[in-house]
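Many introductory courses stop at the sequence. We go one step further.
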Amino acid sequence: MRALYRLAERPTWRLWAIVTSVSLLLLDGCSRCPAGQVFDERTNACLDHVVGIPCAADLSRSCAARRCENSSHCSAQAGAPTECRETPSGKMCVVPFEDGGADTACIFSGSATTLERACAESHALIYTCPGGGPTCTQRRCSSDLQCTDVVACVDGLCVQRGGAPVCYDADGRWFEPACDGGVTVPTYTCPGGGPTCNVKPCANTSQCAMVATSSECIDRLCVIRYLNPLGSLESYPICLDDAGSGYAPRCDGGVGDAGTIDAGSSDAGGFDAGSSDAGAIDAGSIDAGTMDAGPIDAGTIDAGSDAGVIDAGAPDAGPGIILTFTASPTTGDAGIPVTFTWTTNNADRCSLVPSLFSVLNPNDSVTLTVAATTTFTLTCYRQSEQESRSLTVTLTPPPVSITDFSLGPSPLSLGDEVYLSWTVENASACSIMPGALDAGPPGGTITTIPSGDTTFTLTCSGRGGPVNASASVVVIPNNPPNATILAPDAGATFELGDAISLEGTCTDDLAGGPDLWPSWSTVPGQQSVGSDLVTVTRTLPVGAHTVQLQCMDTLGKTDPTPPQTSFTITAPRVASASVAFAHMCLRTVSGKIFCAGDNRQGLLGNGSTSTIAVTRPARVGIRTDWAQVVTATSVTYARAGDGTVWLWAQGAPTPVQVGTATGWTHVASSGSHRCGLRGGELWCWGSNFRSQLGITNGSLTDPTRVGTASDWTWVATSSDGTCGLRGSTAWCWGRPLGTVFSTPGSITQLQVGPAITWATVSLGADFACGLDTAGALYCWGNDAAGQLGDGVPGASSPAPVRVGMASDWVEISTGSAHACGRRGSGSLWCWGDDSYGQLGNGDAGTIATPTQVGSATDWISVNAGGPSGIGTCGVRDGGVAFCWGIDDWGQAGVGQLAPTVQVPTPILFGP
């Protein structure tokens, strides 16, 4: 049965203390503050000695606690092992635990108890049975933490599973209120109607751990399970004594008091002839060896042997309850395990304090980890008797040590605070020099202002001490860094899209000082535009700009008067424009490309496929050697100065090179196919559904040579046809052809206007125009909108028809159903369809003969958009570009969204 009562050993235990009333506290050493107050180093002020601090489980409530300067201010609380420690609320009197922790000692009803208990007890509620029956005490709560003995906190009250109310007795034990006439505490009655005792109710096994570590919660009672002699698993409940400790109930017929052997059992009537005659005490039962003159003589059972002779204290005159009580070892270093062993004379149970072993076997041992010199008391119980023995384990405190001493920041500016942080073990007192700063153990943080470079030394006393640790701080002069601008020069001029290098330096007056960070911003507005040695593009718009350079060091110091420089960004000068259905691109004199309009298919080359319209042309990439740009319905092509060809479109929203070939001298593109010239050879690729590639193959993804001729000088494309020049002769294939409309088209190259010496040709959707070497203008194909310009709308012609008698035409460009051309005087003329204002005549309607656009005579370039164009752009002398026609996606580049732009309007460049 020894294993039946043995409890599991526990390595560490908290020591709970009861502290005396606040009226007994003597404020020794507080002469610098009035009575009832103590000095607080954090605020350098005298504060009330008794304060309210929040309850841990419910911060909205509080209990009374004591401030202190040192542990002597807490020692007046009789019998309580309290000491003064640093807490989040300042220096407070606390109850220490063996494992090194502590809890604030709070005052409630004139005595000290722990914070949680005080908060719980001070928030009780009286429960009254329905119908005005008996009452009992319930516990208010704000969380489950305050209902550790029951199931949960529901509606602010501790309740059982299912919501039944719970009441508490004076010792904090809970019971179910009996609302049938009385209030009952759970009890256990031995089998057969034997003695009863108060038992420990429970909701789960964890609630039985503080009574006995091997106990379990079965049928809502704390029990201990064991194997009986027959090998079956049985259990018995745990009874509670007046102190709340658990013990095993005696269910062998009595409860161990005087009522067990009384006058009714052993008086004269019990040992008379009728009870102890030859039949009761015969030779077989009480013979000469059992009841001879030695054990039952005249001194034992004589004439005076009545009921008082054999009473409760008469088992024998042998030893007391405790036979031995030892500890091993009894001396050593703090924190060592100590084994306590005891033997007893028929004890029922034992307890060992300080510890939580309240129900121990009569003959057993336990091992505890002891943190300091402690006197342990073993108390053993036998029926109604008890006996106690004490012994002291004397331990040497561990040596003092400093585990951390650090500071920060370092370096710091003169006049700023430095933060000192430390952690120590087993120290009785610590201080920091210089400044004689109080650094109480076990650790903390303080601030001070050093007057210069300083080495701080932490000194702690204790066993093996004193010990020291040092940390140093570097203090730098309070001087801000200096900024100097190296570029750009004041008054510099840049073209929009140019790379502007903002260069500057940041210095300070310390050799090897902290890192410095530059920051560029515009003035006024303080808009960030970059950092040191940055190339700024597309960030600053056209106009005058002033920027400043600001430097900042790691301490946050900045130059109070940062330097500034000013420069101007001008609009780029445009060389040519190319217009398509919903976007357009410009090539500048400096070799840059800018695009505007619909970017859903990546046609603007800015790396995105945004659905937001771009109403001001923005730069494409960073190249400055573009020689040609060509727009089409679903793709944009460009030719670079090194003879390479590039495109951007859906799936490739930034320029991507077409193949690896170089030497391209011209490129043309429509929505379905494109062609180019390289060394006089003609190459085409794309769709071939109308034989527009001039070959028998199907569609091609890579450029493929057309024929063997090597004297091609020009090429143009329509939606499903192609025309080119070989010397001064013009040839067309696909649909439409130069001499007849055919379906589905032909790969045969048919000569157009054999009698005409051609200088250039331009293709629209289903018509074409060209100039001869003498400056005469010819058109052929569909004339439904008057796009042939011969004054007879609808008179389509498969052969070239001369437009007017002028012979000073220098440029011709066709759109979907309109055309525009420049004459030698610098004037600009347009004709054909005007559904979207593409003629630039202020919505005068469709015109079947060339009509001058405005009165300007300085036009140097024009583009009507090719086979998908329903808008027009032109460039005037000085590189100023104008656009008109459809603008529903901002493709006119004039900075707005509008259905149409009716007259030539200057474009506005974006950043």
